[in-house]
Amino acid sequence: MNIKIDTELSLPIYRQISNSITAEIKSGQMQAGTKLPTVRELADSLKVARGTVKRAYDELEKSGIISKSRGRGSFVSQTEQSSESRKEKAMQAIDGMLDSLEDLRFSPGEISIFLDLKMRQRIQRDYVVSIAAVECCTETQLMLRQSLQRLEGVDVLKSDLYEMLSDPETFHGSADLVVTSSSHFEQVAPLAPSGKVMQVAMELTPASIAAISRLGRGRIGVLARSEKFAALAASALGKYASSAQVVVSKITGDGSPLDALLGNIDILALPAGFYNICSARDEQLIKSFAREHSVVEIGYRVDEGSMLYISDQVKALQLRKRR
Fold first, then answer.
1. What is residue 296's predicted lDDT score, i.e. its pLDDT?
2. Among 170, 168, 174, 177, which residue's Cα sits nearest to residue 12?
3. For 36, which DSSP code?
4. Using CA atoms, how far apart are residues 164 and 252, in angstroms rounded to an integer?
5. Is 244 helix (H, G, I), strand (E, B) or coil?
6. Most buried of the four, 104, 107, 112, 147, by CB within 10 Å?
7. What is the pLDDT of residues 19-54, one digit of tens each?
8. How far is the C-alpha of 227 from the C-alpha of 233, rounded, in Å?
């Protein structure tokens, strides 16, 4: 395949790859049934991340241009059809969709609104800016992603710092921006194109500061998924909880039962959003504990200055994509 990558273009590299493959298929240079190179082979040939090639192949598969067969590889599946045949199939698909919506008792006016909404979403999809959010622990990773998702027109991708450092090829090389906290910037920056990595400052949320400040006297136990967040939580509690005292931390999955921690404390501190990442049993125990004791959630967010800076970069990228 004759694929040329131009890093000066605003068009994402994965899209350049998928466009080139599509063009070769439509020109007849690649016939139906032709086997494509593996992700590894094409990535090595183009000197790009495997994740970039994989995303291009995924886009081609979604479009029906190629098909994947487990254990065999990826093959060209697109066949030329007459414009009349394509039109007939399009009309049949639309009729089927309209029939389904009418069966659900939607009026013609409502159906028109739905179609208009979905078309606008499709048009805007090409202008979405993808952001790889890189963090070192489950809790701060979730909080960083939640902050970035406040931005309009972005797709936030999860990237674990340690997985990325141990295997850089798993990194989201096709992302438009890479965002990480200031403490990890020096580790992340060399793994992405120059100017693509942005560092942000994370701060304790005002709601968390207020909740911690209201705590009365007692023994505080910290529950977390990672030792790093447990240490962050203990530091925040030590700063704002003047009457209470942190006595113990528990990392979920360390083998010790949660019951033992809850039976030895008066107050429980846990990461904001913890119910989204804990087991059903732990959630039940925590809610039972909360009936008679204080439970405080500790959350962090990207500070407003960093958010404004990232927002400006996102808007600039969206503008370039529209040109």
1. 95
2. 174
3. P
4. 23
5. strand
6. 147
7. 999 888 888 888 888 999 999 999 999 999 999 999
8. 10
Q: What is the domain partition of the chain in residue ranges?
A: 13-76, 83-125, 129-202+305-322, 206-298
Per residue in 205-241, pLDDT tens? 999 999 999 998 999 999 998 899 999 999 999 999 9
**Domain at 129-202+305-322, CATH class:** alpha beta
CATH topology of domain 206-298: Rossmann fold (3.40.50)
Query: How large is the angle between the packed helices 108-125 and 83-103, nearest 10 degrees?
Result: 130
Q: What is the pLDDT of residues 106-154, one digit of tens each?
A: 888 889 888 888 876 665 566 788 898 999 888 999 999 999 999 988 8
| Residue 82 pLDDT > 70 | no
Distance CA(91)–CA(107), nearest Å, equals 20
**Identity of the amino acid at 291:** R
Q: CA 269 to CA 294: how far, in whole Å?
A: 9
Q: Which fold has domain 13-76?
A: Arc Repressor Mutant, subunit A (1.10.10)
The closest of 151, 154, 132 to 141, measured between CA atoms, is 132
